[in-house]
């Protein structure tokens, strides 16, 4: 588990076990942006996505004592966000799109320049390469490589097999690497794709 994933787990545990408001706020700030982008990729609306993520966090606070047994908080947050987004779309009578046609523009977040020691120009090239992937490949790539979820977690979240996740990630990594290879050293590419 990467350090961000461990931090999410630790903060979630702190919130559910002790009701620590400071930990709750930190948890929100760490995952809020990714959850909003994930929700917006499903519903096509950042406004609705912000409402959904806000509702997810209100629910977590209200049910915190019942959530002490959650084994994987990050996946739990994504599943809650997905379910609440779909429910909100149904309530507003919006068409729920299949995940192969998610609004991939909403997923677009330039890789963290400081974390990966990338120049902003290289980060933009990587984002362009990722954005050119088909929706399913792009979503799986982002959930695994950028959000730190495991293959099994992504399979569970998207209701697909782990083999499908593996196949889609293989396609995504190859296409991204091929797209950016002309402009970057092999070490930098390998470092980013490994992280």
UniProtKB/TrEMBL annotation:
Where in this chain does the entry annotate a coiled-coil region?
none
| Superkingdom of the source species | Bacteria
Q: Which UniProt keywords apply?
A: Sigma factor, Transcription, Transcription regulation
Which InterPro entries does UniProt cross-reference here? Answer: RNA_pol_sigma-70-like (IPR039425), RNA_pol_sigma-70_dom (IPR014284), RNA_pol_sigma70_bacteroid (IPR014327), RNA_pol_sigma70_r2 (IPR007627), RNA_pol_sigma70_r4_t2 (IPR013249), RNA_pol_sigma_r2 (IPR013325), RNA_pol_sigma_r3/r4-like (IPR013324), WH-like_DNA-bd_sf (IPR036388)
Domain RNA polymerase sigma-70 region, by residue range, is: 34-93
Q: Where is the RNA polymerase sigma factor 70 region 4 type domain?
A: 124-175
Q: According to the UniProt entry, where is the signal peptide?
A: none
GO process terms (BP): DNA-templated transcription initiation
GO MF entry, a single one:
DNA binding
One matching Pfam family is: Sigma70_r2
Family the UniProt entry places it in: Belongs to the sigma-70 factor family. ECF subfamily.
- What's the protein here called? RNA polymerase sigma-70 factor
The source organism is Lacibacter sediminis
């Amino acid at each position: 588990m990467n350090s961000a994933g461990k931090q999410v787990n630790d903060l979630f545990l702190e919130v559910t076990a002790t009701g620590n408001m400071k930990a709750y706020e930190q948890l929100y700030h760490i995952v809020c942006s990714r959850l909003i982008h994930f929700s917006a990729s499903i519903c096509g609306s950042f406004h609705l996505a912000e409402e959904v993520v806000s509702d997810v966090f209100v629910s977590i606070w209200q049910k915190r004592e019942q959530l002490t047994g959650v084994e994987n908080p990050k996946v739990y947050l994504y599943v809650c966000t997905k379910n609440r987004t779909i429910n909100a779309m149904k309530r507003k009578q919006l068409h729920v799109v299949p995940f192969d046609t998610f609004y991939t523009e909403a997923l677009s977040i330039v890789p963290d320049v400081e974390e990966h020691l990338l120049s902003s120009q290289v980060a933009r090239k990587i984002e362009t390469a990722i954005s050119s992937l088909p929706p399913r490949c792009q979503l799986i790539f982002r959930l695994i490589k950028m959000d730190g979820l495991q293959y099994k977690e992504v399979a569970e979240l998207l209701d697909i097999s782990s083999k499908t996740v593996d196949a889609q990630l293989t396609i995504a990594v190859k296409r991204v690497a091929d797209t950016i290879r002309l402009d970057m050293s092999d070490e930098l590419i390998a470092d980013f794709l490994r992280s």
